[in-house]
Design a protein that fits this description.
Keywords: Disulfide bond, FAD, Flavoprotein, NAD, NADP, Nucleotide-binding, Oxidoreductase, Redox-active center
CATH topology of the largest domain: FAD/NAD(P)-binding domain
CATH superfamily of the largest domain: FAD/NAD(P)-binding domain
Family: Belongs to the class-I pyridine nucleotide-disulfide oxidoreductase family.
Number of helices: 17
Shape: globular
Number of domains: 3
Protein name: Dihydrolipoamide dehydrogenase
Helix content: 25-40%
InterPro entries: FAD/NAD-bd_sf, FAD/NAD-binding_dom, FAD/NAD-linked_Rdtase_dimer_sf, Pyr_nuc-diS_OxRdtase, Pyr_nucl-diS_OxRdtase_dimer, Pyr_OxRdtase_I_AS
Distance between the termini: 95 Å
Structural class: alpha/beta
CATH architecture of the largest domain: 3-Layer(bba) Sandwich
Number of strands: 23
GO molecular function: flavin adenine dinucleotide binding; NAD(P)H dehydrogenase (quinone) activity; oxidoreductase activity, acting on a sulfur group of donors, NAD(P) as acceptor
């Protein structure tokens, strides 16, 4: 019988969530084993957040060099070396990789096993030749690209987020299947770097985002020459010489689109294969592992965090989950996750960021809601930068309770933070209206949107009568 290794925590998966748990627990004195069959850093470092933002940075730089006419500058003959863009992406990954490396985690006291992990029963996990019996196990295996059931897709050499960053030449014409966050980010980046781009979306572009915010980005993509085909059905994909041919029906006609490259960006699926969750008594579905608010699975000794539980699949969500799990496992505190104030961001230009409910979601849950808006074309900083696309949109109740906030515009991912804090601390809209914002900043748009809640009363007849009455006592 194999020897059993005992640990306080067994972490399966060395992505952002798993690494946060392992590092935190080890530095607080816990005995931790970390199991990873692939690359340290997981999807975020190698195929997701890091390479995509590096690619977007290159694309934005190229766009800025083209787009200086309004400032009195003109750039002609800009040459883009796509191999250098590729090298930039991988240089960024390599610069961050040591922070997520086996060597660093072993230096923290974590036992790292490079192997697949399988549950043997409710307590034991097998990793290679080792059998581990931890006090608690944390599943943090992340997610992978979900492939749609399209006839002929398997017969072509398509791209996913795991392969698109390996391109060393700009695609001549890339068709992106899926108009979600990944699809629109990659579409804009590749277009700005010289590719012809078409997006095919079965619903509307960015279907989970507030429609008013999504429309601003959709308009910008079209302005930059990206073809956006919404509410379309892909009938089949076939190969024609070196190109792929996508046969589509978009409600008006049936037609073919020929492309040099196809990128599949139709969402994510949780990585559950080979874990033998049934043996551990862990319930799961196609959407992910089922957890309670403490992030415990049906086996109370096993927790699950990050993309593998579905929901908001962003790195900061996994980091937040890690903190909840550490309080539950190391300190035996019944900490619960509150996912209602989890911000989400899309890093197009303009960016989109949201927290809480959209206007549509809020209207379904509350009898009366009010939408407060302030456009960046009425913001002095935005005018000075000649970047006035977008708005701040906040949804509140009659009493001023903040139900959600959304921003589309430059730096929206940063500007959403005060709204996240306000909702997290259950502040009313008055707190944001009374906030002192530095001038000139885009943050003033948030303050002005909040202040508009009081405009009908503050500038109404009652106030004017009161001011006139008080002036009589000069």
């Amino acid at each position: 019988m194999k020897a059993v290794s005992k640990f306080d925590l067994c972490v399966i998966g060395a992505g952002s969530g798993g690494l946060s748990v392992a590092a935190g627990a080890a530095q607080m004195g816990a005995r931790v084993v970390l199991i990873e069959k692939g690359k340290m850093g997981g999807d975020c470092l190698n195929y997701g957040c890091v390479p995509s933002k590096a690619l977007l940075a290159a694309a934005h730089k190229a766009h800025d060099m083209h787009d200086g006419k309004e400032f009195g500058m003109k750039q002609t003959g800009l040459e883009i070396n796509f191999r250098s863009v590729h090298n930039h992406i991988h240089d960024v990954i390599e610069g961050i990789a040591p922070h997520d490396s086996v060597e660093r985690f072993e230096g923290l006291g974590v036992t790292v096993i490079k192997s697949k992990a399988k549950f043997m029963d409710a307590r034991r996990v097998r990793a290679g030749s080792k059998v581990i019996m931890p006090r608690n196990t944390i599943i943090a295996t992340g997610s992978s690209a979900a492939l749609p059931d399209i006839p002929g897709l398997a017969d072509i050499d398509y791209l996913t987020n795991e392969t698109v960053f390996d391109l060393t030449r700009a695609p001549r014409h890339i068709v992106i299947i899926g108009g979600g966050p990944l699809g629109v980010e990659m579409a804009q980046a590749l277009r700005r770097l010289g590719s012809e781009v078409t997006i095919l979306e079965a619903k509307r572009l960015l279907p989970k985002i507030d429609h008013e915010l999504a429309e601003v980005v959709a308009a910008q993509l079209r302005k930059e020459g990206i073809r956006v085909v919404e509410e379309t059905n892909i009938i089949q994909i076939s190969q024609r010489r070196s190109n792929a041919v996508i046969h589509i029906a978009d409600g008006k006609s049936v037609r073919d689109i020929e492309a040099s490259h196809v990128l599949v960006a139709t969402g994510r699926r949780p990585n559950l294969d080979e874990l033998d969750l049934d043996k551990a008594g862990v319930l799961f579905s196609d959407s992910g592992i089922e957890v309670d608010r403490r992030l415990r699975t049906s086996n109370k000794r096993v927790f699950a965090i990050g993309d593998v539980i579905g929901g908001i699949q962003q790195t900061h969500a996994a980091g937040y989950h890690a903190g909840i799990v550490l309080r539950n496992t190391l300190f035996r505190l019944p900490a619960k996750a509150d996912l209602s104030v989890m911000p989400r961001a899309i890093y197009t230009s303009p960016e989109i960021a949201e927290v809480g409910l959209t206007e549509s979601e809020a209207s379904q849950l509350h009898s009366t809601v009010q939408s407060l808006k302030w456009s960046f074309d009425d913001n002095d900083r935005a005018r000075a930068e000649r970047d006035m696309e977008g708005l701040v949109k906040v949804v509140v109740t009659k009493s001023g309770k903040i139900l959600g906030a959304g921003i589309v515009g430059k730096n929206a991912g940063d500007l959403i933070t005060p709204w996240t804090l306000a909702m997290q601390e259950d502040l009313k809209i008055s707190s944001m209206a009374n906030l002192i914002a530095a001038y000139p900043t885009r943050s003033e748009a948030s303050k002005r949107a909040a202040g508009s809640f009081y405009a009908p009363t503050l500038f109404g007849k009652g106030t004017r009568r009161l001011v006139r009455f008080l002036s009589m006592f000069g």
